[in-house]
Amino acid sequence: MSVRARIDSEKQKLRRLILQATTDLLAREGFEQVSIRKVASRIGYSATTIYLYFKNKADLIDHVVDDGFARFMLRLGNTGAGDSPPLRQLVAGMRVYIAFALENPNWYRVTFSSRLGRSNNDAQFLTEAATREKGFAVLAASLTQAMAAGEIPKRPLYPAVQTIWATLHGIAMLLINSPQAGIKEQRRVIEGYIELIVNGLRVR
Amino acid sequence: MSVRARIDSEKQKLRRLILQATTDLLAREGFEQVSIRKVASRIGYSATTIYLYFKNKADLIDHVVDDGFARFMLRLGNTGAGDSPPLRQLVAGMRVYIAFALENPNWYRVTFSSRLGRSNNDAQFLTEAATREKGFAVLAASLTQAMAAGEIPKRPLYPAVQTIWATLHGIAMLLINSPQAGIKEQRRVIEGYIELIVNGLRVR
DNA sequence: GACATATCTTAACTCCGTTATTTTACTTTA
DNA sequence: TAAAGTAAAATAACGGAGTTAAGATATGTC
User: Fold this and answer.
1) Which segment of A38-47, B51-60, B118-127 scores lowest on mean pLDDT?
2) Which residues contact B94 (CB under 8 A, 6 or more apart)?
3) CATH of range B56-202; options 3.90.1150.10, 3.40.1700.10, 1.10.357.10, 2.60.40.2550
4) B170 lies within 8 A of chain A by CB
C-alpha cells in the first residue's frame, strides 16, 4: 500500500467512525439529541473536526440516512421469499419493510420526515425523491411480476406503488409512535393492513 | 364584567395571540424556523413573557397542534356528505383528511411526527394517543355505519380503522413531501388510493 | 399614599452550529 | 538532517437557541 493509499484509508476510517457514532447516537437517543458536539465528544475529537469530513450537520445526517437506506435495501432484497409467487414476495417485502422500520425507529423517522434536517432547496428535494425511488423500485419489481403472472389485475404501476408505499409508511409511523402497543397487537395491525391492501390489489 | 373577569380575558387574549403567532410562523416558515424568541418578537414582547403563558417550547407547540386538531375535526365533521350512504361519507372524510393535510403541511408534519418537539415521558405519549383517538373516532363512525348498513363486510373495527388512518397518513405525507407533483397527479394518486382502500374494504 | 401582586423585561447560563485562526504532526526536499 | 511545506487537528469566538433568576413596572387594594 502506498503512503497516499494508507492516508486515504485512514481518512475513510475516521469518516466511517463519525458516521457510526452519529448513527449510534441517533438510534439510542433520538434525533433531537444528535449534535455535532456530542458526536465529536463520543469519538474523542473536537467538534470542528467533523467539518473536515462533512459539509455541515445536514450533510452528516444525510449520509447517516443513506447508510441506513443501503442496509434497508439489502434487507428488502433478502426477504427469504425469492422463488415464491410474486404476490407472496410482495407481501414478504411489506413485512420486512415494517420490521426494519420498527427495528430502526429513529433512523426511519429521520429518513422519512424529510426537511427535518434539510433546508428546502430543489437539489435536496431531488435527492429526497431519488431516495424514495429506491424504495419504490423494490416494491415495483414484485408488483410488476405479480401483474405479469396474472396474480392481480393489471393497473398503472406508478400510482399503485405510490399507494402501497404510502400505506406501508403510514403503518410504520403508526406503530413507531405507539410503543405501548404489544407485539401481538402490532402483528394484528400489520396483518390486517396486508390483507386490506392485497384485497385491494386483487379487485379492479 | 368583573375586574377579575376582564383581567382573565386579557390574559387569554395574549395567550391566544402567542398561539396564533406561533401557528403563523409554523405555517409560513416551517418547524425549524419556529423559536420562542421569534414568536415573541413578532408580537412585540420579550421572549421570557412566553413562559408566563406556556411551560416551555414543547408545551407551546403542543397547544398549536391541539388548536389545529380542533379545526381538523371540525372540517372532518362537515364533509358535506352528511346524509349520503356511510361508505360515501367515509370516502368524503378521506378526501377531506388529505385536503386538510395539504392545506396545512407544516402543521400536519409537526402534529404527526410526534416526539419532534416532545420529550418521551409516558404522560405525553398518552396525550399523543388520545389525540390520535380523536381522529380515529371520525373514521370509526363512518366505518361502523357502513358495516351496519351492509355496504361492506363486517370486520374488527380497530385494526381496520388503524389501517385506514395509516394509509391516509402515508398518502398525506407522500403528497406533502412531493410539492413538485401537479394538482392533477395529486388527484390521481388520491383517487387511486381511495379506490384501493375501498376495494380492500369490500372484500373479505 | 403605601403596600402587594401580577406582568413584563433585562441579564445571564448553557448548549448549539459554524467559521476563522492557530497549533500540531508529518512529509518532502535541499 | 534541518528547513519548508502541508494536512489534520484543536482553540477561540460569533450569533442564535431554550431557559431561569433577578429586577423593574404597572395595577389593584387597603
Assistant:
1) B118-127
2) B164, B168, B194, B197
3) 1.10.357.10
4) yes
Chain B partners within 8 Å of A163 (Cβ): 167, 171, 189, 192-193, 196
User: Which 48-107 residues of chain B touch chain A by CB within 8 A?
Assistant: none
Q: Which of A168, A185, A196, A202 to mutate to test the interface with B (most CBs of B within 10 A)?
A: A196
pLDDT digits (tens, 9 = 90+) for B153-189: 998 887 788 778 888 888 898 888 876 678 888 888 7
How many Cβ atoms sit within 10 Å of the Cβ of residue A1? 8
CA distance to partner chain A, nearest, from residue B58 (Å): 12
The domains of chain A are located at 1-54, 56-202
At B134-147, the pLDDT tens digits run 656 778 889 999 99
Query: Spelled out in words, what is the top-level CATH class assigned to the domain B1-54?
Result: mainly alpha
For B57: left if phi > 0, alpha if psi spans -120 to 50, otherwise beta; the answer is alpha
For chain A, the average pLDDT equals 84
The residue of B118, B162, B180 whose CB has the most chain A CBs within 10 angstroms, and thus the best one to mutate to test that interface, is B162
Contact indicator for A136, B189 with CB cutoff of 8 Å: no
